[in-house]
Design a protein that fits this description.
GO terms for molecular function: glycosyltransferase activity. The chain is mainly alpha-helical and about 450 residues long. It is built from 18 helices and no strands. It has a domain of about 210 residues. The protein is globular.
Length: about 450
Amino acid sequence: MLFRQLEPRTARTSAEVLKFALWPFAVMTVLNRVFIKAINGFVTDDYRPVYNASFEFLNGRPVYTANFDSVDPHYLYPPSGTLIIAPIAAIEYELSRWLFIGLNALAILLAWYLLLRLFKLGVGSIAAPALLLAMFASETVTNTLVFTNVNGCLLLAELIFLHLLLQRRDLWAGAALGLSIAVKPTLAPLLLIAAARGQWKVFVTAIGVPVALTAMAWPLMQDPMEYFTEVMPYLSETRDYFNSSVGGNGLYYGLPHWLILLIQVLLAGTVAVSLWLLYRYYRHDELFFVTTSSGVLLTASFVLPSLGQMYYSMMLFPFLMSVVLRNSVLRNWPAWLAIFGFMTYDKWLSDRWQSTGRALEYLRVTFGWGLLLIVVFCVLGDRYLAARREGRLRFGLDPAWMASAPDSRDGADKGAPVAAPTRGTDDPVTPDEPAGEREPALK
């Protein structure tokens, strides 16, 4: 059956033309990223400090010994993460790195499939090769594989969590999230979505798993307290290199502290309003609410706190995929200008216009994340004001025309029936979805 699918055929429809054109590009891009770029590696090596720390842990020696005055990658995983990842040092470094690249590539491919299923899309849809190509052509996937870090596994944990959360299998959803938090707290903001949906059992395993793993790792480590006394204070500091957060770029360009704080407060305000509107008017539109809220929360967690690196953007794939929903907040060009800023693998450093090129390269991620938050705020705010002006807030924020708009999923643009717009929460009637690399600032 597989070979029949691979049989060369002449496309008979526009959809087949696109699929036949996209699949070779997608597959060859995956192979290039995994077997060429990732194996070649780069001067930035996130894997070496993790491997060295795992080796020290397995041999009963201290692991938190990094010199934080240097700009080299450091080992920053907590004791629970150390316990989980330590087996990578059981074999020699090069083979271990290759296997870890393979593990992340497999995790990303599984996440790709789960992302399609989350939006009820199949591998036979046009979206399948388009999404696969977009993912592996992006900076976030490319550098995750090239630098060899764990973000691919975190993306898989996020997709498993979202699937289980929507199925209301709370304990298992929390376990998936808890395993990711045990290694890196990147996905911790997603707990707020579970809280907003009243799925409190998620917290039992989401907190219990990392706590249990920490308790198991503690007696096996020589220096577990150093994580809390040395690593956590370092993580809480805003550094002016390899950092695309507002604070990081503000320090790099010498902005006054009050201006950095003002930008952070204004962006936090847009996030708060967006989340309130999503909760008040969209929480019963489960897929839209969960994917959009997760995108807002995670983007805010990248751009507002002390550290945000470009390849964190991988966790936004579920949000970006929500563009297929008819009421998506991403169906406008400013949203995709923002996404270009933090997803593209392009480099904007210029030999001819060095100062301008450097600014474009270093600021595009920060501006992209910030613009995305502003776009969500503006779209939701405009819908709210229009609905209030027209006296239809009790029916939700979506305008009437949106009920008949295609949502781009399989069958939706082929005359399949579309659902009525989600009603607001006041309606009792049940309704029928790294940072751009740069040198540290001169001291």
